[in-house]
Every structure is written in C-alpha cells, then in structure tokens.
Amino acid sequence: MTDFPGFPPGFVFGAATASYQIEGAAREDGRSPSIWDTYSRTPGRTANGDTGDVACDHYHRYPEDVALLRDLGVDSYRFSIAWPRIVPGGGPVNPKGLDFYSRLVDELLAAGIEPAATLYHWDLPQALEDEGGWRVRATAERFAEYTAVVAEHLGDRVPRWITLNEPWCSAFLGYSVGRHAPGAQEGRGALAAAHHLLVGHGLAVEALRAAGVREVGITLNLDRNLPATGSPADLAAVVRADTQHNLVWTEPILAGRYPATEEETWGELITGADFRRDGDLELISQPLDFLGINYYRPIVVADAPHREADPARRVATDNGYAEVALPDVRHTAMNWPVVPESFTDLLVELKKRYGDALPPVHITENGSAEDDTVSADGAVHDPDRVAYLRDHLTALRAAMDAGVDVRGYYVWSLLDNFEWAFGYDKRFGIVRVDYGTQERTPKDSYRWYRDMIAAHRG
C-alpha cells in the first residue's frame, strides 16, 4: 500500500523549467538583452535587485541537470527556448544559440527523455519591445519567423511544442499590472498585447505545422475563480474575473469567438478594438494536439470599486473586483491557498464548457514554493511540498475519472530558480540550488516523485 495515485499506461510524467529562470549566460555567445534583463536590472523592480544574469548556470551545467532528470525517471522534460539567443536584437539568426539547444536536445534523447519545447516563456527581445512589443502586430509576425527557424533546426528531434506559456502573465502582468516585464500599466495597450499574443500563437501553429512537428499546443494558466459570497455583486465579479483570466484565451482558441462578457469586463477599452482584423479568429482557433494547463491555486474574488474613477485612465486589470483571502486552508510560501479539489473542478468545468472541442490536456506546470531549509544532515526535508504534489496528483486523477482526457503532468520545477519579480526569495524546485556554489541537492520531494514514477511503471 502506497500513497501514490495511480495513472493509466502511457501517461507522461515530466518536469519543467524556463530559459530566463535557469540558464544564466545572459551576455554569452551572441545572446541579446530580453525585456527581463532590462526589467530586472531596473532598481526596485525585483526582490533584492536580483537578475537572471547567472541564475542556475544551466547554460554551462545542462549535462548535470539532464543527469538529475534521468535519475528522476521522467518521460519528458519541458524547457523553453530563449528568443534572444536565436534572433538577437531582432536578427540575424545566431548559430551559437541554436547550437546550445541542439546539444541540450541531444543530451536529453541520449538519456531516454523526450524533449518538450516552449517557444515563448516571457523573454521577448528588448529590441522588439522598443518597437512596440506585443502591443503591435509586427511582434507576432517576428515570433512566427523565429518559430520557423527553431522548428527547422530542432523539429526532427523535438516531438512536443508549446507556442506560448501563460499569455495572461505576458499581457496583463506585463502591460497592465506592471509587475512583470516590460512593467507597463496600460488599458487598451494590454488588451492589444493579449490579442497579438493570440495572433502570434496562430502564426506559430502554422509555422510548426509546416515544419511537420508531431504535437502542437499552447499553455494557459487557467484559474478557478470563486465568489467571496453568494451576493449578486460578487457573482458578477466572478464573471469579470473569469473573462480576464480564462475566457479571453479559451474562447478564441477553443471556440473561435471572443468572450460574450468582454464588454462588461473592459467597457470602452475593448469597444471598437482596432487591433483585431478579419480572419484573426480563424487563425487563432486552428486545431491543437493538446492544451497545456498550469495550475497552482484558486482565486476568491469580491466586487470592489474601480481603482481609477475615470474609465479612460483605467488599466486592463481594473475590472471592479478584488482578490480576497481564503481562510482555514494552508498557504504556500507564495501565500497561495492549497485547495486540491479546486484543481479537479477547474478541469471538469473546462470539459463541460468546451466538450469535444477541448483537446487532450497536459498539465504543464504544478507545484509549490515552500520555505525550504537545509537540515544538519545536508538534506532538504519538504513534507509540505510532498503533500501538495500527492494531493494535486490525486485531484488530477479524479478529473480524469470524471472524463477529462489528461495525458501528462510536469512538476514545477526541476530546480529552484529566478522567480521573476520575487528574485531568488521563492523556491519551487524539487532540487535545491545553492546560488553561491551552484550545488544541486535533490529534496525529499524529488525522491517522492521519483518513487511515484517508478511505482507507476511497476
């Protein structure tokens, strides 16, 4: 008898990372600055002024990290490709950047691990941001060109491709909240960014199909939005939250339409949106082989006054609601509530909404930041993370039993890493990284996940 949830034969177990969070080598081999280089080097933007200049030094230490993956026993490794390494400064193509990912892919294949590549995990070349970034359609077109280059070089060896990771963060944290790069606080500019990210996704799907790759998908961080009370005002706030967090992506991608609730959410910011063109929905809603979903926690929302009284000055995330605390549950080091059953509900409701239009699902991120400490024996005992993984995998299995076609699960993250605006203060890894020495130490959660995978294989 074990505490491991069971999964069907062929289910894919993996681990995930992202380029800017682990690679380092920010100024090596022709790489140009990304928006995250600029943002993190701007005083006051990140905790302790931390940057990804060195991070986990994965650029030089990738064989050691692949060995950790091999010993973990994963079927697949999800990594992201740094656009500024491939097309620095907007062009021309950098052979040294392509060669790094070619070596990484070959190392993975030699270890018996299937590569899964994400084309955009937030590190837009700064040169493109200087020309308007995701606010302008030209960036989507440059993204397609970059995609074609990478697919031509790696498409014969990488079977699973993800166009975008969490476009909600790119569009709204980056261009509305201002807590992510490029740090803008805008209204229509953020909505234009959201749309152009979707256009970029559609163009990238076309480029990947033309290259003949096996599987194409996108990763969304969908949220389970819950009302603070049953009042009509709070229930209406949930509709607006759901529109901004979920429907702005799922409706165009899975249903080929814009959300019916977008005007009540964004008002005049979305009225007469001139960044939309005829044919965009057909481009965005091309069939996918899978949908990647990143899940961490539910969000509880309540009706709240607009932060800016003047509608013309509102940012895109000022939708008349506020997130409120969820009492009586454990919270992670990110102060995120731990509610595994909400994971089940999110997936089941997604299937109910989209039916056969929902492609097979891969959970492309799931994990928890905890206040890890190194014990006197040199080990990292992280029982809260082990419990989080066990309970969320159990909740995932419940969604599968309810009819959701889930094909794989990637733990976030293989390594402690640069956690965006939180710098190095938050640790999500199942492997501890000493940022001074770059020593890797597998945590108890690494061993638990390894043992669960081994038990799955019998």
From TrEMBL:
MF terms in GO: beta-glucosidase activity
GO cellular component: cytosol
SUPFAM superfamilies for the chain: (Trans)glycosidases (SSF51445)
Keyword set, alphabetical order: Carbohydrate metabolism, Cellulose degradation, Glycosidase, Hydrolase, Polysaccharide degradation
EC numbers on record: 3.2.1.21
Pfam families cross-referenced by the UniProt entry: Glyco_hydro_1
GO biological-process terms attached to the record: cellulose catabolic process
Active site: E166 (proton donor), E365 (nucleophile)
InterPro entries per UniProt: GH, GH_1_N_CS, Glyco_hydro_1, Glyco_hydro_1_beta-glucosidase
Record field: catalytic activity: Hydrolysis of terminal, non-reducing beta-D-glucosyl residues with release of beta-D-glucose
Annotated positions binding substrate: Q21, H121, N165, Y296, W412, E419, W420
Gene3D superfamilies: Glycosidases
Top-level taxon of origin: Bacteria
UniProt keyword Hydrolase, yes or no: yes
Protein family according to the UniProt entry: Belongs to the glycosyl hydrolase 1 family.
The protein's name in its UniProt record: Beta-glucosidase
Native source organism of the sequence: Streptomyces minutiscleroticus
